[in-house]
User: What shape does this take?
Amino acid sequence: MSRTLKILILEDNSGDAGLTLRALRSSGLQFEHRVADNKVDYIVALQTFQPDVILSDHSLPSFTSEEALPIAKDICKTSAFILVTGTVSEEFAVKIIKAGADDYVLKSSLTRLPSAILNAHAKRKAEMENEEHMKKLTAVNKELQTFIYRASHDLRGPLSSMKGLINVARIETEPLQMAKLISLMDSSAEKLDKIVVDLIETLGIRDRSVKREEVDLEAIVTELLASYQAVIKKGNLRISVETEFSTGFFSDGAILKMVLKRVIDNALRFHNYAVPGSYISIRLKTDSDGAFISIADNGTGIKEELQEKVFDMFYRANNESEGSGLGLYLARIGTEKLGGRISLKSIEHIGTTVEITIPS
Assistant: This one.
């Protein structure tokens, strides 16, 4: 095994528990163990020891394996459960296996116990991995359905607007009115272009291969802020960048740049320019574990009940937003692609802080 197994033995006979341990040790199995001989100790061991495998005798004083099995399934869903008993009828063996036990071994045949443990643990591990894969697949399918519906809906908006403006332009003869129509068409085309760019990036980020390269965080942030200079100057925003680099940082610079662009763009989009002393504060730190990035502002903030949804696909916390609703979603997907975590803390009318942790 690649690691030491944790085995919980539910047995009230110390002699039988000793025989079980001897059989396991003689097989060369690497394990650590706990022994429980009553219901209370059994529940405590499940909660604190978190065993990989449970070896349960069938009958203990005022407690049986039929009671122990559902308790195990409730507290330790990943634990394999093997009945180890002196005698058992074929009918009962079938019954307990149907109830969720992984195997049963007679105390007269303990030489089979190590292989039974390995098989049951491998089976349970595979089942949990399959369950996790199914959860991810379900989530991906749900996102795909949302993506198709919302993409078609968001694309039709500016397209319908442009079509209407074109129809009006066909019968318009006044130059000034024609100029206004062209300006409105240009605005719709620009909005459509932004939506298409976000959709393309959404489709591409999941299939993109992650490159390993040394990343200059400060250079990325400096470049991004330079691209926003007109907006920053217009809003009289105070921008501060604090750095603390103790070691080199290796990741995918292009993906990380996309993540930071989305977060900074969000901070600018929802900033309250009417507040005196408006600011965006960026903190960059690297150490042996990786990089920590914090982007804080004193903008409009987000209601507490909405904060857990801000990283969802197409979610807009502000109904007045003209964005695609993919900005922070792309930031989350990109961060996860790099093996990192992203979180948001916000107080309405006070400001927002986004924290990103990326392993090196």
User: Anything to note?
Assistant: The radius of gyration is 30 Å. The mean pLDDT is 87. Residues 213-359 form a domain with the Heat Shock Protein 90 fold (CATH 3.30.565.10).
